[in-house]
Amino acid sequence: MPHKIGFVVVSSSGHEDGFSARELMIHAPTVSGWRSPRFCQFPQEIVLQMVERCRIRKLQLLAHQYMISSKIEFYISESLPEYFVPYQAERFRRLGYVSLCDNEKTGCKARELKSVYVDAVGQFLKLIFHQNHVNKYNVYNQVALVAINIIGDPADFSDDSNITSREKLIDHYLGHNTEDPALEGSCAGCLRLPAPSLVLCCEQTA
User: Fold this and answer.
1) Could you tell me whether strands 93-99 and 7-12 are parallel, antiparallel, or unpaired per DSSP bridges?
2) Cα separation, 26 vs 199, whole angstroms
3) Which of the listed residues 34, 41, 59, 108 has the most CB atoms within 10 Å of its CB?
4) Cβ(85)–Cβ(185) under 8 Å?
């Protein structure tokens, strides 16, 4: 049965101080997520390593209310180069992209929750963020991602060593026990949304 897949952030092309991509690894109401650097060059990218090789069924992305990328592309890979270089695409396979609304209808006060249905196997997921939508609130031309969920099934049969490796991977990047309540997700297919927020929901296939 598809369930939420844990992940760690392998790399990002940059971030504003206090808004690292590693914030995406924790789902909690107080987490603000990732923001690109101010006046950054595009595209921006984030690479995630899932805690196990899996078949991704759905991605859920919660966009910022005004730091909105016009388009987000998705790539998947079984492995990374030995010396990982951002934007190196040889090992990644393009899955598709989604377009995000400019949020003018809500006055940039709502956050769009995008559900993207995919069917792909791998352990590394790359997100590429394109030029931001222009609005009066986004004075530094940034893009942001408040939260992301990866829903899928393990591609390999689990064993004790695989479970141990997943736990060690999370411990290595987060620096605390995997039983920390901050790591607990909500029901499968749901995001614990930062509050208060108004959310626009829509579905799309990559």
Assistant:
1) unpaired
2) 19
3) 34
4) no
pLDDT confidence of residue 123:
95
Query: Residue 204 and residue 206: Cα distance in Å, rounded?
Result: 6
Mean of per-residue pLDDT scores for the chain: 81
**Selection from 23, 38, 28 nearest residue 140 by Cα:** 38
CA angle 21, 153, 30 (to 5 degrees): 30
Answer whether 135's CB lies under 8 Å from 108's CB. yes
Token couple for 23: 């914030």
The tens digit of pLDDT for each residue in 84-95 reads: 555 555 689 999
List C-alpha distances in Å: 125 to 10, 52, 116, 181, 199: 10, 12, 14, 25, 25
Report how far residue 68's alpha carbon sits from residue 112's, in angstroms, rounded to the nearest whole number.
Answer: 9
In angstroms, rounded to a whole number, what is the distance separating the alpha carbons of residues 27 and 62? Answer: 11
CA distance 111 to 139: 18
Residue 196: asked if its preceding bond is cis (omega within 30°), the reply is: yes
Q: What is the pLDDT of residue 171?
A: 55
**154-176 tens-digit pLDDT:** 987 555 545 545 555 555 544 44
State the burial class of residue 104 (Cβ atoms within 10 Å of its Cβ: 0-12, 13-18, 19+): exposed
